[in-house]
Amino acid sequence: MTSPSLSPDPDAAPLVVQDWERLAFRVHRRAYRDDALFAAERSRIWDRTWLYLGHETELPNPNDYKVRALGGRPLIFTRDSTGELHAFLNSCPHRGTVLCRETQGSSKHFNCFYHAWAFHNTGEVAAIPDPSAYADEEYKASMRLREVARLEVFEGFVFVSFTDDVPPLLDHLGAAADYIRMIGEQHVAGMEVLPGTQLYSVRGNWKLAVENAMDGYHFSPTHNTFVGYLRESGFAVTDDDQYAYNLGNGHSLLILTGHGGRISMLWEPRFGEDERVRTAEHRREMELRLGSERAHLVADESHILFVFPNLLLFDLEGLSLRQLEPVAPGNTDVRAWQLAPRGEDPAVRDLRMRTMVSFVGPGGLATPDDIEAYEAVQRGIEATAGNGRAELDYSDMSRGMAADAAGERGRSTDEGAMRGFWRHWVRSVGAGGPVDIGTPPPPRPEPTPLPSSRPHGLDEILAGTETPAGQEEVAAR
Amino acid sequence: MTALDAELGAAVRGSDRAVTRAEVEDFLFAEAALLDRQRYDEWLALFVEGGRYEVPTTDAGATPASQGGYFVCDDWDLLRARVKRLRSRKAHAENPPSLVHRMIANVRLLEREGDELAVTANFIVHRARDGRTNAFPGRYVHRLQVTDDGLRFRLRRAELALEQLEAGARLSFIL
């Protein structure tokens, strides 16, 4: 394609342009609003890639189930009577009726009210009224519940695929897997999803939510009031020495060390003195269980991890998961859960809930401003739509592009993680890849995430809570 | 927590005087008028020191705020931070402020214990913003402190009667 930005036909304008001479990166705004592209995303991404479905701790007991849609397909996520996980299409094999009309519960059977067909939660047919009118038992057995093509679990995170033609889940997760593993390592008892799902919808394209999560540049201006609150409560906030990484397969990561405390791992004055003592004790336990180096990585760095295409993990003061479910080009359903250590001290759990809900979620002190941003973008990008405006109809993501050209890691306040996402997206959606202007840099591996230069948090906290036992263990490492 | 204890100690003394439904209605209607006009400082003065504001998620059921996902679980510190934020021009989600309009009905007085009175009411809040209007139906489940010169919120809790927050329906305002 020559002169890519000058095409008069907006449908022919390239979706993603990287200009290596001017160090510019642009995304055509129809990517956020075009119905045909939305359909292509459904068929080429949501129908062909591993998708995050839910966490196994959402179904603690046999027969528990949750109902939720993925890629527009209604699903029943259940743990069957033998304890095995399934994701059934929530549609009767007979005539397509929605089978389970509750949103959650516990049941050994799913019964269709229309013609009273009944199914075991293993998927087998339990009963078909008047079966003699059907050819034979084999026919009846063929009417078992339709299931997703693949279901795999990694560290409690349950992923599904609507096609068999996907690599093993661990290959898809690639370098993202270790950051998921670190979550499980935070506490010896492991983590569980808490009840109470933040279910909300935004008038914005799903990719705006991905961009926002990978965008350290917006934090100070967009969250001005929240940053002010943090500073007043003695919480340090800086954007220095923080980096963004592309992990391959569309996944990306921000490693943050400048936003302070992490409950039970990195103490802040606003967490209170009791929490300081508990944190010191827990850090000593982590040190013994994981070794000093790993404990430092798991405890002292905050992470925002995007697992392509629909999972965001916010491993910050506490842990929250966000699942993106695109409904229309300009409309996205979001489901958010809190993850917490199993059997956590009630006082810590209370602190965790207040701390996380104060930031994340549609009623918090910060997330509403993010939603305001996605919704304002979705309305604003209409301004440049239409024939004859193709050259203007781009959003700019050039910040820190020199790092891409040099093959270096970019800062969290640059836009490199977004660029990595868009490069992957434009290939996945069947648009042929980004269009280069000038000479692209030679192909080379993405920079590997480096441990931050942040000091070991155990040393800091022990400086404030020295005990004989604590001194012994510090000496031991 | 010692600062908070001191504040609580200085709080208005409770009363065991009788309260009528009309008094509770007047209190809730006056509160609604303050919120519809974004008069947040006066609204905050309707709380006892140490008061709380909660909005559970639509699927939270009986899960207490300390143990599960909530939309809002403000203690006194966060509640004051929320009001400070709402008064700032940098609270982008409410600048310009949404147009809100609330109706309160079905007010009922429930159990009374000393100076504490449990009340419920149905609400519907209409919120217009960016060319769209969202309706938020639900139920208030408040715990009020009765004092000699009026009522105060100890817990102000709004339970949504929705399956989820629909598009555009973020709770950047006070529900």
Automatic annotation (TrEMBL), chain A:
One of its GO terms (molecular function) is monooxygenase activity. Keywords: 2Fe-2S, Dioxygenase, Iron, Iron-sulfur, Metal-binding, Oxidoreductase. It comes from the Bacteria. PROSITE patterns: RIESKE (PS51296). Residues 51-160 form the Rieske domain. Residues 432-477 are annotated as: Disordered. Signal peptide: none annotated. This is p-cumate 2,3-dioxygenase alpha subunit. It comes from Trujillonella endophytica.
TrEMBL record, chain B:
InterPro entries: NTF2-like_dom_sf, Rng_hydr_dOase-bsu. It comes from the Bacteria. GO terms for biological process: 3-phenylpropionate catabolic process. It comes from Trujillonella endophytica. The keyword Nucleus does not apply. Keywords: Dioxygenase, Oxidoreductase. This is p-cumate 2,3-dioxygenase beta subunit. The keyword Oxidoreductase applies. GO terms for molecular function: dioxygenase activity. SUPFAM superfamilies: NTF2-like. Belongs to the bacterial ring-hydroxylating dioxygenase beta subunit family. Pfam families: Ring_hydroxyl_B.
